[in-house]
Every structure is written in C-alpha cells, then in structure tokens.
Design goal:
By secondary structure, the chain is mainly α. It is 65% helix and 2% strand. It is built from 27 helices and three strands. The chain has a three-stranded antiparallel beta sheet. Helix 9 crosses helix 11, helix 10 packs across helix 12 and helix 26 packs antiparallel against helix 27. The radius of gyration is 31 Å and the shape is elongated.
Amino acid sequence: MNKNEVISYIENVSLVLIALSLLTLPLFFLTNTTDIFVFPKQLLLTLVTALLLILWGIKMVAEKKITVRSNPFNLPVFLFGVITLVSSILSPNMFDSLLQSVPVLFVLFLFFIMVNTINNRNYFNIALSALALGGVLSALLSILYYLKIYVLPIPAIQNQYFNPFGSPIQQIAYFLPILVLSSIYVIRKYRKAEFKEITSDYSSMILVVSSIVLIIGILMTLFKTFTLPQKPIVLPMMTGFQVALASIAQNTGRMILSLLFGSGYGTFLSDFTRFKSPAFNLQQNLWNLDFSFSSSYFFELLATTGLLGALSFIFIIIRVVKTRLYPVSPLFVAMIVSFILAFLIPYSFTLVFLLFVLLAFHASYLYLEDDKRVFNISISLIALRDGLFNVSEEGHQERASRRTNAVILPVLALLVIIAATGFVAFYSVRYVMADTKFATSLQQASLNNGQQTYDLQREAIDPTSLTSFPYKSDYYRVFSQVNLALANSVINNLPKGSSPSAQTQQTVVGLMQQSINSARIAASISPLTYTNWENLGGIYRSLIGVGQNAEQFAIASLTQAIALDPADPRLYIERGGIYYQLAQLAQQQNNTQLEGQLLDQAQSDFQLATQYKADYANAYYNLGHTLEMKGDYQNALLQYQIVQQLVKDNKQSSEQIKKEIQAVQAKVSNPNSTNNQAQSGTQTQANGQNQLQVNEPSPTFPPQQNQVKLPPPPQNTDLPNKPASGSAK
C-alpha cells in the first residue's frame, strides 16, 4: 500500500473503534469484578483510547508530520486534564485519586482523537449514530428487564430493576442529552419535509425510533425509581455546597494546595466525612451513610480539584457558549443540557464520558461547517538552517512545501505514546486481574471456604506478583478482616478445655500479625479514609490482652478516625467502648483509681456522641451503663429514661430498657446493693439508630500471658490533627 492508502486504512480502523466504543460503553458491564458497572467501563474506554492513540501515532509517522486540529476547546480541556492530574498527584490519597482520574484523562484523549479523526460528514454521521444507538440499546435492555424478559444469560443480573448504569439517575441523565439531540433533529427535519420523505429516509427513521425508545426508557426508569424497594439517595444540595466550600477553605493542614487543587479528583468521600456539618446528623435517613459523590458534579469538582478545577470546567462551558451557531445546532442544545445536569446531579464516569464526547462532536461539527475557529495545524521537522521546526496552518504551507519533512519527530511522538499507553495498559491489566480475584474471593462459594478466600485475596495484593494490584486500600482492609476472622475461627474450633499446640499458636499469631500489617498498609495507602483507621482500631481492640500496647494503639487509631470524621457519633461510641472495656479490666484487677479515670474518659466520649446526635438512643444507653458502673445511679436512670423515650416505637428495645430501668431504680432505692456492675444489652435493631448494645469488640481473643509484639499505627504528617475531644458545635 502507498502512503495515502495506509493513512486511509488507519482512519477507517480508528473510526470503527470510536463507533464501537460509543456503542458499547453504556452497555458494558462485568459480573466478575468488585464494581460491575463503573470499573468495566473505565477499563474499556482506557484500553480502546490507548489503541486509538497508537494508531494516531502511526498515522503521523506515515504522514511525516504531526497534524493537530486547532479548536476553541483544546486549551480549556487541556487545562482541565492537567489540573485533574496534578490534584491526584498532590492528594494524600494519591492512589485512590489516580484510579479515578486516569480514566478521565483517557476520556480527554478520546476527545482529542475524535476531533482529529472525524474529517467528513460520513464519519460524523457514523459516530453520532453509534452514540445514539448505544443509548437506545441500553434503554431497550432496561425496558425488557423491567418486563422480566431476561435476554442475557447471566443469573446475577436477572432482576426487574437492573440497568447497565447501576443507577436510575445516571441512566436518565445519559438518555436526556441524546434524546434532545435526536428529537430536535427529527422536529427540524419534519418541518422541512413531507411525512413520506421522512419515512423513506433511513437515517431519519432511525432517529424517530431512537427518540421514541429513549422516551419510553426515561419514563420506565422514572417509574422504576419510584417503585424501587430502596430509592436512590443523593447528597442534599446544601450539604454538597457546604462540604465543597469547607474542603477548600478549612483544610488547615494544606490550605493553599486544597484551595487551588482540592483533595484529589475522585476523593470526595474523605471531604464529606471531614467537613460535613454536625447538623447533617439530623437527616434521619442519611446521617449514617457515607457519600462518594457530591450532590452535583460541579460541587464535587470544587471539593476535589479546587478552584482551578472548577474554573477550568467553567472555562469549557464559556467556550461552548461562545461557539454557538445560528440556527442553534441540536448538538449545542444537547451539550447545554449535559452542562446543566452537571450542576444539578452527581456525575459518574459514564456521564463524564458523554459530556466530552458531545464536546468532540461539537468541535467536529464546527469543522465540517467551515468555522474559521477550527483548522488543522501541521508540525514538522525541517532542516536546521530553516529553524528546525515548522508550525503552519494547512492551506498556507507554500514555504513549508518547499522543505523536506523528516520522520524523526512523528517517530519520537509515537514512541512517547507507546511508552505512556503501555505503562497504563500494564497496570490496567494488573488491576483487572487482581480485581477479578478479589471479586471471586467475595462470592458465596469462596466465603464458605476460608482458605480459598484467603489465598485469592493474598494473590490480589502480593507486591511480587505481576497479576496483583497492591495499591488499593480496600483490598488490604478486607484482607485484614479475613485474617482476623480466620484467627478467631481457629481459636473457636479448639476443644473446650484444651490447650492449643505450638503449631496452632504459631498459625494464630501469624494471622493476627498479618491482619494488623494489612490494616496498617490500608491506612498508609489512603490515610484520609476514616474507615481504614476505624478498621485498624477495631483490630487492635480485638487483640487487647493478646498483643503488647494493643489498647494504646486502638485508642490512637480511633482518635485518628475521629479526626477524619469528627461528626460521626458512632466513632465516639467505639472509642468510648474501648475505655469502658479497659475500665472493666481495671475493675477485675481492683485498680480503682485507673478504673475511675477510664470511666471518665468513656463518659466524655459517650457524651460527645449524644451532643453530635441528640436522638441517638445507643449513645445514651452506653452513657447510662458508664454512669451505672461509676455508681451514679440517678444520672444513669436519667439516661435510660431518655433511651426509653427514643425507642418507644420499638417493642423489643422498649422491653429491654424497661427492665434495666427497673434494675437501676432498685439500686437507687438500695444504694448499698452489691450488684453494681452494669448489664450488657443485646442488639435489637440492625439500622444502628435504636440499637441498644454496650459497645464491645468483635471478635475477642482469650488473654495471653506472653503477649505478641504489635507494630504501632502508621505515622503520616499529612493527616489532620484535630482535638480528640470537645463539644459538638
């Protein structure tokens, strides 16, 4: 083939890949990964875009020059990508952030490839039809599943409420811009043509059918949303706004970095837990939930990429508004709809993909309409005496045409592309292989086989293996719990009254140490994720009496978790529970002074829990038990009476607290009673609001005379250093 044939072949292959990605991405999901909806889409887009970049590099080598299509969106998109990447690199939770930002960067690369590939109206129509068809097929799939017509032979998704987006809100938001695009096109064509002309026009009929299917899909999804057993939950708009402002203005540890670059793209969860107001606990159905997405994409950008990220996004919008044509194109209206939705709802990866794909179509449309703001620029390497580089607009290359192009510059660009995409592809493959192992370990068949679960998870995080991904804290946190559960299982399976053998003791100690080490690694990888510190504190607590300094390390870890989620009353109850547990041990040792100090600290934490959430029955319940153990029966009775009022609608809890009130009233009447030990309650309700239970570790291990040496919690200077106690504001 000659040069022109090679270039034409590359362009055709690139178009096919673009069309296939636009068609399949909204439909694509995997059931053998931990996240069956978003992660597979990120993986597909990243790998396809990497291949498109390599093809573009080969095309440059064939042309012996670099041709880039200049358009009004290149600069704002470039700035958005750079700020997103910088925010991730500067984030304390860098690995978590990069896992979310790298796929977005490849969305931006796809924008670049589409703008430079779509050269004619035929290419434009094929790609746009693929986008519309992808939305239509996903709508059709959801409709069929709601009608219980399960067209895919996958048992895991045979559910009436299934959709390939994983969220009805995200699905509707994906359909709306495509519906606007197709509907406006059909309406305009209907005004200019007779009905017979429309019905005979194949492309027009496709758009008509697409619009009808999308409308049905949106209405069906709305109906399903209202009939779902559990309605989709979105963070209230005011809370999202408050968290965004607080995260860039109140992060005292890194004020300037947070103001400019935020906490790191994709790390909104840490912003939410650190900066949510204590007033959020008044939200009865939301207070005990964690939110990984803000109430809108713009508020999330403000929190996670700072002022620069939010301004770069606004810069893109301003450029779009300035490039509107008259009459206004359907693509422009669809883009405006997508931008409006970005200020109203949270955006998943799929919606970010759609937004920049529409932007690429808009830039291509301007090029096809001969807009002077869109033109090709050629960069070539020329003779040294002529200046080495030549940058010129196509059509104005009289001088450049007299020079001989050198292939070295495109070859260098291709090598850079291959190196960068190869690096990302290598870690992407490792990530997906590790994730599939981890997902398998969490399936019921593996959970029934502790050894299999252990082996699969260990393989997924083994840093020496090329099929592992040791950069995700969630893997280590879960693995730490598996090790602890296995150690507990070994202990519980020993015959009563028997002593464990030396080998059994070695196995248990090894599992305990591996549990601690995995939990510590999780906290080191994602130091701003409070659940990692809560998990670490819980493991240390389980080893009190077994490991050296376990109680000190448990309190230190829980204190750090509280610094990262200071408004969560449950964390104060957990730390107060440690003090209460230690006070019980001190009582058994007849150490009255230490017992009193520990009970004072437990009381302080339980009181903080009641201040942060004044209607939290379990906080008053634990406070009452602490006061009862101190011998302050009158105030203990007062706390129990508050509990009784809060759980009056729960029969089992009401009966439980009624008995305990009667017991304390007897102690008030007879203060010389020898039964001064508070009685532990039992769990009565799973939602945590009216659950009456004295906070205890789970699991627990029998005390050991020769205690195991435990490593301390990891130290990180980037962590916030908030007071461990104080009153709620």
